[in-house]
Amino acid sequence: MAKQYDVLFRLLMLGDSGVGKTCMLRRFTENEFDSSHISTIGIDFKMKTLEIEVRVQIWDTAGQERYQTITKQYYRRAQGIIFVYDVTNQPSFQHVAKWVSDVDQNAPDTVQRILVGNKCDEELGRQVTREQGSKLAENYGMEFFETSASTNSCITESYTRVAQLVLQAHKRDVDSLLGSLDDYLDKVALEDDRVLPHIIGDSQKNCAC
Ligand SMILES: Nc1nc2c(ncn2[C@@H]2O[C@H](COP(=O)(O)OP(=O)(O)OP(=O)(O)O)[C@@H](O)[C@H]2O)c(=O)[nH]1
């Protein structure tokens, strides 16, 4: 019997307002980029199936302080977190420490994290060097990516990597879940085989034509 099912992970994007979270997500899911900034209200999400056969639900949070009571409620349900800062905005880089500390207080210990410096296409306006980003990520034990939603640089790679990390961290759970799902589907298939002639018989009896 054909076995088709998805593994679904929830990923959360965090970072200051304007660093480009929504644009990264739109680039990844729709391959589109918008140069205007319409602040996310509260929280939004999009789904995407990755080549590694994992389906991800990506939550795009509002960076604005006033929505943080709402967005913090989602930390607990995330398996992966993408911390985003803007390489042309030094304060957004400094605030990564605050986002990380919020996650430490509210998310499960098993949550997988990566650090992303977005807008790397803006070389002239750069305020945070690649080395500074990489060093901070190393201090937190995270992998680091520089991305551009504008030029589509490293966007798919960063989402795919965090999903891979989540998959590795939950591999045993996923394997045992899929193992029991296989057993269940096999059992149902066997039962179907036994029941099917009976159902056909019944339906033929009820058929009016
Ligand atoms: N040059 C450049 N601009 C970008 C990039 N990503 C986003 N932007 C611009 O940055 C601005 C903010 O982008 P958003 O994606 O709306 O930012 P956000 O982090 O979702 O903001 P909030 O919803 O307020 O938290 C927009 O004007 C985007 O066009 C990028 O990679 N390069």
From TrEMBL:
SUPFAM superfamilies noted in UniProt: P-loop containing nucleoside triphosphate hydrolases (SSF52540)
Topology within the bilayer: Lipid-anchor
Chief place where the protein resides: membrane
Localisation per UniProt entry: Cell membrane
Cofactor: Mg(2+)
Recorded family membership: Belongs to the small GTPase superfamily. Rab family.
Substrates-to-products reaction catalysed: GTP + H2O = GDP + phosphate + H(+)
The protein's Enzyme Commission number: 3.6.5.2
Keyword terms of this UniProt record: Cell membrane, GTP-binding, Hydrolase, Lipoprotein, Magnesium, Membrane, Metal-binding, Methylation, Nucleotide-binding, Prenylation, Protein transport, Transport
Name of the molecule in the record: Ras-related protein Rab-15
One of the record's GO molecular function terms: G protein activity
A single Gene Ontology CC term: plasma membrane
Pfam families: Ras
Oligomeric form and interacting partners: The GTP bound form of RAB15 interacts with REP15. Interacts (GTP-bound form) with MICAL1, MICAL3, MICALCL, EHBP1 and EHBP1L1.
Physiological role: The small GTPases Rab are key regulators of intracellular membrane trafficking, from the formation of transport vesicles to their fusion with membranes. Rabs cycle between an inactive GDP-bound form and an active GTP-bound form that is able to recruit to membranes different sets of downstream effectors directly responsible for vesicle formation, movement, tethering and fusion. RAB15 may act in concert with RAB3A in regulating aspects of synaptic vesicle membrane flow within the nerve terminal.
GO biological process: protein transport
UniProt xrefs under InterPro entries: P-loop_NTPase (IPR027417), Small_GTP-bd (IPR005225), Small_GTPase (IPR001806), Small_GTPase_Rab (IPR050305)
SMART domains in UniProt: RAB, RAN, RAS, RHO
PANTHER family the UniProt entry points to: LD44762P
